[in-house]
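U., I forgot to send this yesterday:
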Amino acid sequence: MTGAMVRLTAGDAAVEVDPTAGGRLTSWRVGDLELLGARGALPEEYGCYPMAPWPGRLRGNRVSFDGRVRALRVNYQGWAMHGTVLSRRLQVVESTADRLLLQGDLGPEWPWAGEIRLVWHLRPDSFHSQLTVSADSDSFPAELGWHPWFRRRLSRGEDLRWHLNARAVLENDAEGLPTGRRLDPTSLEGPFDHAFDVPDGRTEIIWPGALHLSAECDAQWVVVFDELEDVVCLEPQTAPPDGLGPGAPIVRPGHPREANVTWTWAAT
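Result:
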C-alpha cells in the first residue's frame, strides 16, 4: 500500500503521518491543542520523525566498523545528522483508524543494506511508537531515536516546562559533541543542547494550564534542545550523539535493534 498523508484518530486525539518524509508526524493534536511546531521547512526542522540508524551527529561525519572507516553524506549544517530515513519514502504496510505500520530501506547513504520498521499507535490518552532496524546481510552498528519539535507555547496555558530524573548530563566540546565526561545535571544551566542519562527513560513535559505529557522509553538517553524561542526538542534515544563508536550495539541478520516510546497525557 502507498499513499499520501495518513490520519490516525482515537478519542479526541489525532495525528497526521507523512509516509513520504520518513513516516514523520506533521501534526499531533489533543483536543484543540496542536503540540508540534517547526524551526523551519527542512526535513530536520519540523514535526516528529524517527532517527535511524543513528541519532544526532557523528564526529567527522563517519562511522568506523569492522576495520573500515566509511564517510557519510552531509545533510544539515555541515553534519551527517539524525540518520538516513528522516526524509525517505516509507511504504504503508498496515493501516487502521488508530494504528500505522511503515517500512523501508535505509537508503544508499548508509554503507550497509538494512530496513526500518516504524509503528505509530494512537489511543485516546496515549501514543505508542516502535522503531526497528534490521540487517539484510552484513552486520552493522545502529542506534535509534525520535525527534519531536514541540511548541513552546500552545494555544492556551503557560510555556513548556520539562523534567528528567537524570543521573548525569554529558559535557560537550567545542563542536557540540559529547566529550565523554559526565556532569551533575544540576551543575549546568540552560539553554541546553545536551544528552542526559535518564535511567528510567522518562520525560515529563508540562504546559501549565493546558497539558501534561509524559514520555516513557525503553532507552535511557534524552537529548534536550531548548535554545530556540518557539520550539523545544526532547528526544528519547538509545544513545547520545556520536553514538556509533566502539561498544555500539550491532545489528545482525535475524537480530534487529528495537526501541519503544509511549507518550501519555492528561489536562492540567
